[in-house]
Amino acid sequence: MPSVTAYRRPTAGTQPDYLFPRYASTVKRAPTQPLVMLPQTQTELTGPVFGYGEVKRGDHDLTQQHAGDPIGERIIVSGRVLDENGRPVPNTLVEIWQANSAGRYPHRVDQHDAPTDPNFTGAGRALTDKRGHYRFVTIRPGEYPWRNHYNAWRPAHIHFSLFGQAFVQRLVSTLDWETTIPEMALGYRFDIVLRGPEETPMETKKGALR
Ligand SMILES: [Fe+2]
Known about the structure:
It contains two helices and eleven strands, in the order ααβββββββββββ. It is mainly beta and 210 residues long. Strands 1, 4, 9, 10 and 11 form a five-stranded mixed β-sheet that branches. Helix content is 4%, strand content 21%. The structure holds fe (ii) ion. Residues 99, 157, 159, 210 line the site of fe (ii) ion.
């Protein structure tokens, strides 16, 4: 077995509390027991490798998945996946899901009174290239109400999932003119750092709709 380097642990006192009652979602999601520090073994320090056969051509373009064009403003979201030392992570699976332009998910649990779009499913997949780059073409998601407190709304956002090493559930992206296609779509850049002090905020839980 080749030896692998362990990840740096966060410096004590530098991370926000898991439980923050004024943000109601944390009450259900925060651990109720003290955390158990697990040793980092080969399983934690390595991940699966995907072949290109796993992701179909066009899976990255959410505007071309149905017979017609989805309603809304086209946008391009691209960026890189980086490790804790700023090195690109190639050939890793990036998945996204999002509401349509009216702020509605095509899911039975979502009963928000906003229209669904028959030409928009809101799910996409991509593999990073050898420089760690990924790129999605999609529709700007709409805001939707979320009952954290009275009259709470979630800002427009896209959920990210990175298979194998970590899951991500927050997008703070930068308008990027180099990615923008004139007369077609605005471009946004979102670099994802998997580990370390510059780590992108993450949740390990997956499966919740929102
Ligand atoms: Fe959401």
